[in-house]
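Give me structure tokens for this 192-residue protein.
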Amino acid sequence: MIIGCLGDSITAGSPLWDPDEAVRARIENPDERSQWEWWAMRADANLDLRNHGVYGERTDQIAERLEAAVAGAEAIVIQGGINDIVQSRPVEEALKNLTGMVWRARGLGLRVALVDVLPWSNGDSRAAKDIDALNAGLRALAERVEVPLFPFHDTLADPSRPHRMRDDLTDDGEHPSVEGHRLLGERAFSAF
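Here you go.
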């Protein structure tokens, strides 16, 4: 199954990988294992995941690339929202953009899955509150339109500090480590 994976740096594989060759050329020792898609394809050989992640993009910017991400695909995984939160943009706008992407993809006849927002270890209490609100909105959306929601947040959250990723599962407090991507690809993606 060909699946377009549309999102921000979490989808791209930052900081150790990027689907854009020019960006990857600037990364010292790029490691393609630093993408959850790489691990998911190893867990299920029937998957052909196409990485359309772009570092730093907000949901409105991600939405502009939807059609390109689904060219030739049967399904799409939609991920995003943390950059909206980092830039203190309203959670409602991010949810509206993500909802619009779901409906556009459905209108194209695609299977759709959503991804919730990871904990942001470098964020403050306002960001943690916004992540909780956006994830609650994503859960409600997924239930309402009956699409899978990949539990990226809970997969990497530190049980003793749920608004942070476990230290061994993040490279920089913002992105998953290789081990974090492995868990996302092997566990969270199995919901599709």
